[in-house]
Amino acid sequence: MTSSSRLECVQGDIVQQDDMDAVVNAANAELRPGGGVAGALHRAAGPELDRACRPLAPIAPGQAVVTDAFDLPNQYVIHCLGPVYGVDSPADELLAACYYNALRLGEWEKVDSIAFPSISTGAFRYPVTEAARIALSTVTQHLPDFPRIKRVRFVLFDAATTELYQRTLASFNEA
Ligand code: ADP
């Protein structure tokens, strides 16, 4: 099975990925609810997620930790702290580390499917064209190392970001 046959980019909401074992949180260092993806996941998971996160915080940029998913329709939440663009450096390596460490944790927990949001491209202001290239190249490059993970889905919130991710993935497949 090639990396590209295990990878898709769709428009949607990260809290509604009923058919995926794990969802990834674009977390903050304290692993608190906050806004964006983290706020949506904590609201949908319920207060037990916040309680489960507290002993694991703080985390550093590029790091990932895993918790149960509580009231979400998934088994696990993998919390990643992306780099704040212009603050945490090297931003490209830290963003790539998020995706790699999330896959590694997923493999360790024996999940067969993981859904990612576009880490760092909201409140953390990472330029989305560059973030998409790093996200997709990191996953494409490392999926062969993680054979238990059969499906990876990027869940993008708006149509423009979805098209960008889909075009970027297609350009890798043509190369
Ligand atoms: P970060 O702090 O890492 O930048 P954000 O949560 O602010 O994370 O945003 C990351 C990306 O996720 C942005 O592109 C944002 O539009 C998108 N996003 C926000 N809410 C959701 C959601 N419920 N599902 C999927 N993507 C979302």
Features:
175 residues, alpha/beta, Leucine Aminopeptidase, subunit E, domain 1, binds adenosine-5'-diphosphate, Macro domain-containing protein
What does this structure look like?
InterPro entries: Macro_dom, Macro_dom-like. It holds the Pfam family Macro. The chain is globular and about 45 Å long. The protein has a single domain, classed as Leucine Aminopeptidase, subunit E, domain 1 (3-Layer(aba) Sandwich). The protein starts with 6 loop residues before the first strand and ends with a helix. The longest helix has 18 residues, at 91-108. Helix 3 (91-108) runs parallel beside helix 4 (128-142). By secondary structure, it is α/β, with parallel strands linked by helices. The protein has helices spanning 36-45, 47-53, 91-108, 128-142, 159-174; strands spanning 7-11, 22-26, 64-68, 76-80, 113-116, 151-156. 38% of the residues lie in helices and 17% in strands. The protein contains five helices and six strands, in the order E-E-H-H-E-E-H-E-H-E-H. Strands 1-6-5-2-4-3 form a six-stranded mixed β-sheet, sandwiched between helices.
